[in-house]
Amino acid sequence: MTGTSPEQLRDRLASGFAGRIFLSSLSVLYSAAMAGRKALYGKGIFRRRRLPVPVICFGNISAGGTGKTSTVVAVALELARAGRKPAVLLRGYKRKAAASSVTVLAKGRPQIFAEAGDEALMLYRMLEPAGVPVLVSSDRYASGAIAAEELGADVLLLDDGFQHFALERDRDIVLVNATAPFYSDRVLPRGNLREPASALVRAAAVIITHCEQVSQADIDALRAEIRRLAPLAEIIESMHSPETFINAATAEQTDLNSLKGKQAVALSGIGDPSSFEGVLKKMKIDLKQIWRYPDHHIFTAGELAAAQEARAGLPLVTTYKDFARFPAKWQEILTGGVLILSVKIVFLCNGWKTLMRIVDGAGRKAD
Hints:
- By secondary structure, this protein is α/β, with parallel strands linked by helices.
- Helix content is 35%, strand content 21%.
């Protein structure tokens, strides 16, 4: 493992009594600031604006990976298949452009990928075949207006915007990670919660992700807590399932069993690296080396060179999100090749129909 994440720094502070008091005090201040901000929007002191087409927000109440990207992609592709014209809006973490400027990734538009950020580029690569544009800006109203008025989008999917109160939306869909239940967590920076769990009351639906990694008793306990906090929300269960390996150099698909019973190394810089590594281990892959970097980490040539030397010729497996942040000349460094694990989200029982009913309901509301 390498790199120092904010969570590791927090854990170091929390190991001592004085550090715990300090972090808890900051959490109180953070909670108060969040409550005050929500109140200002609720009373109309801060302006909330509405776009001319339906907006469905996919977000969470905690920092770290919950599976939003997989869900947004699945919904966007389904809408496109049904003849709708979706567009995805996101902030664009660590992109090389002014936060409030709008970067448009769409067919027929000039594109500067460095200005979009790694998440936007990853999303666009997955959605481009279906013609779904991705727009990046901290000003989600401005990007949404371009999507609706210039690109003809008739429904907007807001990626990671549950705490973005400046934009009105028709539905809020919240994802929670079953492996990191919010009821045993605390508000930032003492814990990982972006706001108190009571915020779930705003959700039209709560999707429990990574159900495959916990017991049914854990899922039942999480459902009960969600129901207590959000009695009117639909509760949907889902799991993440490996789909295929993709050769990063050729884009060719490789059978998942190609590494079964073999040795490999794993590299990631995501919010929930244990889930990624856990999937590989369940596939009977013997991980001889694991490199974990902080979420959204931009990989350098030196870091890849170090991994190349340490991998000892073994296959290197990473994620879509991480590969998007490799330096331009990565192939000259990782001469043994790279495999990208493609993972799809699978909704249990009638969860997919329930989710799309909620999304379509927002569309009918606007008609």
